[in-house]
Amino acid sequence: MNPSLQRGAAAAARGLVAIVLTVLGLLAVTFFIGRVIPVDPALAIAGDRAPEHVLQRVREELGLNLPLPQQFLRYVGKALHGDFGNSVLTTHPVLDDIAATFPATLELATCGILLGAGLGVPLGVWAAVRRGGVADHTVRVMGLVGYSVPIFWLGLMALVLFYAKLGWVAGPGRIDVAFEYSFERTTGLMLLDAARAGEWEAFRNALSHLALPAGLLGYFSLAYISRMTRSFMLNELAAEYIVAARAKGLSETRIIWRHALRNAMVPLVTVIALSYAGLLEGSVLTETVFSWPGLGLYITNSLQNADMNAVLGGTIVVGTVFIALNLLSDGLYRLLDPRTRDTR
Amino acid sequence: MSPHPHRLPLRRLARFALAVAACTWVPALLAATPKDTLVLAMAFDDIISLDPAESFEISTGELLGNAYDRLLRFDVDKPSKLVPDVAASWAVSADGKTYTFTLKSGLKFASGNPLTADDVAWSLQRAVLLDKTPAFILTQFGFSKDNVKDRIKALNATTLTFETDKAYAPTLVYNCLTANVASVVDKKLVLSKEAVKDGAGDLGWAWLKTNYAGSGAMKIREWRANEIVALERNDNFSGTKSRPARVIYRHVKESTTQRLLLEKGDIDIARNLTPQDLDALATNKDIKTVATPKGTVYYFGLNQKNPILAKPEVREAFKWLVDYDAIGKTLIKNIGVINQNFLPQGLLGAASDKPYKLDVAKAKALLAKAGYPKGFKVTVDMRTTQPVQGITEAVQQTLKQAGIELEILPGDGKQTLTRYRARSHDIYIGQWGADYWDPHTNADTFVRNPDNGDDAKSKPLAWRNAWAIPELTKQADAAALERDGAQRAKLYLALQAEFRKSSPFVMLFQQTEVAAYRANVDGLKIGPTADSTYVYLVGKK
Question: Does A248 touch chain B (CB under 8 A)?
Fold first, then answer.
């Protein structure tokens, strides 16, 4: 077998073991925290008015009368067979719920990170190159505002301005009621589904609904990414190889974008990947303001009602996303930085 | 080489960004809701089942009220009057135990199946057999899994008998049959979807949780949790056909978001606006509002397991330490009216007496008499939602004037409720909504406590506050059996008088539900109960 292939296989196996162990650990922690929350899950199902015998029956059905470790084993055993149980709030299997809510978050987060990284990196570079200048200060203030203003408030203000007053974008929700049933939702990604069905009016409408929340999330990740880019770039620009490049007479453009940025990209990839993962977890406040039926809202709502199957299912997804993006950025490292490649 | 070569990509980038913005920019469409579709924004994250035998949630109540028929309903304009639904007429036997209902003829379900007395009997039996949360509304008349098939039965296609264990007040029995749990489900359709496990059928329960099998004005087409509910006109409906072809509920949790959607015309009706947002809409000529007093009352419950709170003088002192006037004018403006009785206005026998007002001197004298001239320290479990948070903080201030230090233990709804139900609170601020449109629903919980023991079978609010009241329990039972309407009202007035004086409940206000709607909408009326708001009667110009 080709040795590099072998190494690749070994790395993949290590990655897989890491995923499984991390997810199991996450599950255990979430499970036990969920069970010590002082909320009676039976109450969420049967309601406040349920007579005592109905509540008791619900507790038995949920297995809440068993000892904790036994409950956990039961859960993991079922999960290994692909049965993550039903959500008590939506009554659907947890997997179906996640399949319904995750695409909404995925669409939003992907557009958000594309905006955030697409604009944040050049802005950071610009600020680093013009250090101390107007550009630098502008980017810094933008970053500070992005950090310090509550997203909830900013979202509402953006809605008031761009939706209510100016009418530039569509309002809360993913699509207008008129288009709600105009095409089939196979992937759950509105833009993709509308495009596949050739429903371009619906596509434009969905895009218009997406613009504000995605722009908002994009702005918040931009604030972080541009600051990080600036500081990585300053490090690189002070390095000796830049002096050498200048001495060689390379153009400034080439020095900044080819040499310095390429080296700064190595740590930046991790920053961007983790920002993306953070967005994929679902931004509860953004989802609330924009009535976006995403994963963040689903998990929060489930947690408040002690709907543990749903919380655990959501945790697995979020955990897996984090690990996968981490592995991906590790992979990108290898591509970007020859030193990290195995040379044995 | 230009002096600032690194600017170039930025310029290109800016041009790209502009291009992206241009693609995204879509001029907002005018009047975005289609003419034949009524669009509402509502917070409906409480829905957990669409099965009338199981559902007991507020949002579901409204959906089922529009989508399912029952034997009879109460008149929304005059809630004490009963009107026919699938029953054309009804009568009770001389001994007061056997009720006979005669159905209208030619009724059909949305599925096309004929609706007969057998469907009605089976639906009621099914609710008792499944024994989910709302089943008590029927089982309180003596039905059990063993006897229900004999006691509720169809005599022929249009006649049904209903046999109770005692001679209850007929109004109580009829009122209970107007509740959602007594909805008529399509026996043939539901049984065809029955899931059988270990030889036992589930009576279609798993299927009906997310599906529809009724005969009401609207069909439930789809429920996507926390996203959308779609109703559709049922052309088989026997009554007035639905005005809108479709009704769409969009889940919008935030009041301000609902307001913006309404102002823009992306929705026709907003259902969960805060007093602040309602105020902000007051000057908008395109928006109107409609309000109805609901069957929900708010109160403080003082746990009698706490020896200080158990003293009668302390209980009374609390009632003098609430600034009802100020709360009514500010905190619950637009959303409630002060009410100091356990019955909400609109129910048979509801009293309107309001003896209490803020009187610190009187409260201090009572506290001194109880042995606490300098006050004491006590905690309150409070949900962090409005208006309960504002009210609790206001009362914290007035209690301080009499030396009582109130420590607030904030929590989310399920958390505080779990503590309340375990009787581990000192004070709890809660609300109680009528389960069906009859005074017994509130008497049953506020002035009935058949067993005050820790492992009691039923745990009404009186039990949760450990208020042992054998005498009042007897009186409440008598009121449920009183067959003369006027006499029955008198019994409830007497119960309320005693309750006002000695109960450990500080009654605060009765909720008013307000909906805001666009001026081109007509016919919207909020019902006093969750299941009596009929969206199928709402039209649009």
Answer: no
